[in-house]
Specification:
Radius of gyration: 23 Å
Shape: globular
Strand order of the largest sheet: 5-6-7-3-8-9
Structural class: alpha+beta
Order of helices and strands: EHEEHEEHHHEHEHEEHEEEEEEEE
Helix content: 25-40%
Largest sheet: 6 strands, mixed
Distance between the termini: 47 Å
């Protein structure tokens, strides 16, 4: 059977501190004119530091196959999907795609902020090469799935991130591209809608369309995809049956990370709503560097900056074992003094007390969800902490 996606020796190099160039003709002409002066001043690009986001990546995907792409942050997963989506070009190598491609790489990718939800549905359909009649056939399904009927004729720049997410996913999943590329965008939105999205992706795969799914949710990858590709430092280090690849990834990737501190708010994990200051796991009467045994009660602590006055924030923790299965879900964690009250802007601290004799020995990963107004996930940190019992 002929492959619907063929990637051959794909490499991508970036210059550190430089944005990807998407220049106009005027920019190009100006660059040509100024080039001799840049050389005279010694600011040649040849001296700039570069990194390889991808190195010699190659794989084939058959029609109707669902493939998960896994790896730690910075492994090259999103870069690969951007190349497949033709958002950026590879430095070397060749990609062959046979069929229409629908991409969901970032919230609202491909949306025009000044256009309404209705207009953006038609715009995205046109980008996919669909006729107006085809879009109208799916229009009601898209609106119903996205649950934005009341705001259909509102410019999307006024949408919340959750509304953006719902509409973006609905458009990508319902306009019937032969190839659907989905990055870890389900971190935005409530848990119910995430479940709905995963169900829809499973339906898309069962219909015989091809899905490439980037995620840190190992259970979702195993449930949705029969095959997985493991990227590490821009290279494929594992490929095959998803259960085995996920097991290998978890076994080799977990190294103890019992404490993290981000001093600079500008570079700390998060967004314009919330940013993390620190995270640690420690014995109830000790320090992060102390050993945890099976019978040791311990504390999981977080400090975070709230950047939007008036928000009501809670933290939700999921603790996964080495197999990617939730071993313990402490539920909602909050500062008692602020529970249910509006937060001012500032630095806050929350802690979760975990009793002894609860977890078996082994490695555990803590996933942190910052939840606003009892439902909307505004930030997800997949590997906030990794610790050993």
């Amino acid at each position: 059977m002929k492959s619907i996606i063929s990637a051959r020796n794909i490499s991508k190099q970036y210059r550190i501190g430089q944005r990807e160039a998407y220049g106009t003709l005027r920019d190009t002409l100006a660059s040509v004119v100024s080039a001799p002066f840049r050389r005279l001043s010694g600011n040649s690009r040849a001296t700039e530091e570069t990194i390889w986001a991808l190195r010699d990546v190659g794989f084939e995907v058959a029609p109707g196959e669902a493939v998960g792409i896994i790896g730690r942050n910075g492994a090259g997963k999103s870069t690969l999907l951007k190349i497949l989506s033709r958002i950026t070009e590879p430095t070397t190598g060749r990609i062959e795609l046979y069929g229409r491609v629908g991409s969901l790489l970032e919230v609202g990718t491909g949306f025009h902020p000044e256009l309404t939800g209705r207009e953006n549905i038609y715009l995205n359909g046109a980008i996919l090469g669909m006729q107006r009649a085809e879009i109208e056939k799916k229009f009601d399904e898209i609106v119903s799935f996205a649950e934005i009927e009341r705001f259909l004729d509102t410019p999307v720049k006024r949408y919340s991130s959750g509304m953006y997410m719902r509409l973006a996913f609905a458009v990508a999943a319902h306009l019937e591209p032969e190839i659907l590329l989905v990055d870890e965008v389900l971190a935005v939105g409530d848990a119910q809608f995430q479940k709905k999205c995963l169900g829809k992706m499973g339906e898309v795969a069962r219909e015989g369309r091809t899905v490439l799914f980037v995620s840190h949710n190992m259970m979702a990858v195993q449930n949705l995809c029969r095959r997985a590709i493991w990227l590490d430092e821009g290279q494929i280090v594992g490929s095959g049956e998803s259960g085995q690849v996920v097991a290998d990834y978890l076994q080799h990737s977990f190294s103890a990370l019992a404490e993290q501190v981000w001093e600079d708010i500008a570079t700390a994990p998060g967004n314009d709503k919330v940013r993390l200051r620190s995270a640690r796991v420690r014995p109830a009467d000790g320090f992060a560097s102390d050993t945890l045994t099976i019978c040791t009660p311990f504390v999981i602590e977080f400090e975070y900056w709230n950047l939007q006055p008036g928000a009501r924030l809670d933290l939700s923790l999921h603790i996964y074992n080495e197999q990617g299965i939730i071993a313990f879900n402490p539920g909602t964690v909050h500062e008692p003094a602020w529970h249910g009250r509006e937060f001012p802007a500032g630095l806050f601290r929350s802690a979760c007390q975990v009793p002894g004799n609860l977890l078996n020995d082994g490695m555990y990963r803590v996933e942190l969800l910052v939840v606003r107004d009892e439902g909307l996930i505004v930030h997800r940190e997949d590997e906030a902490l990794v610790f050993e019992v």
